[in-house]
Amino acid sequence: IVTNYHVVAEVRKRPNTELRVVLADRTAYTAALIGVAPDNDLAVVQITAPKDRLKPITVGTSEDLKVGQKAYAIGNPFGLSLTMTKGLISSLNRIIESPSGTKISKAIQTDAAINPGNSGGPLLDKVGRLIGVNTSIATPNGGNVGIGFAIPVDTVNRVVTELIQTGR
């Protein structure tokens, strides 16, 4: 399971803290942290669940995204689970800051409502393919003002493959 590094960062600081993943059907599983990439704000966790409980998302590409195309963000904003918002890709190739302070290039900017709690959730295209991982917002007050960012799926594919193979 792919998420943001900043979502699991506290677990790394507190070794006795349990990491749990709750699926859409409300079943919860203890997760193992497989690898983290703070410079890309990505992490991989693993759960042991029956295969019929897991519904993988089809992975798209971010190379051919266009400004104005529809985007859907899924997450748990402000603790409201299973929330989906709709918007547009507002811009491409934005540069945002990672939790480690490095710059993440090629970020997707969207006006789909992304709020605290959406982090680590998928950004989907109109046919439900993963195009990014929701990561942050630009806000003067802590809530959505129409500027959200996602790590592009092409970066996710590259980084996650390395994390699974090496753990770093």
Summarize the structure in words.
Strand 6 and strand 7 form a beta hairpin. The two termini are 15 Å apart. The longest helix has 14 residues. The strands form two sheets. A six-stranded antiparallel barrel has the order 5-6-7-10-9-8. It has 168 residues and is mainly beta.
Draw up the topology in text.
Layout: E1 2-3, H1 5-13, E2 19-22, E3 28-37, E4 42-47, E5 70-75, E6 83-97, E7 103-110, E8 122-124, E9 130-137, E10 148-152, H2 153-166
Antiparallel strand pairs: 1-4, 2-3, 3-4, 5-6, 5-8, 6-7, 7-10, 8-9, 9-10
Class by SSE composition? mainly beta
Shape: globular
Mean pLDDT: 93
Q: Which residues sit in consecutive blocks of at least 5 with pLDDT less than 50?
A: none
**Helix content bin:** 10-25%
SSE arrangement, N to C: EHEEEEEEEEEH
% residues in beta strands? 35-45%
Give a quick account of the main beta sheet: strands, pairing sense, barrel closure.
6 strands, antiparallel, barrel
What is the oligomer described by this structure?
single chain
Distance between the termini: 15 Å
Q: What would you report as the Rg, rounded to the nearest angstrom?
A: 15 Å
User: How many helices?
Assistant: 2
Task: Say how many strands there are.
Answer: 10
Order of strands in the sheet with the most strands? 5-6-7-10-9-8
Short descriptors:
168 residues, mainly beta, 40% strand
Short description:
The chain has 168 residues and is mostly beta strands. It contains two helices and ten strands.
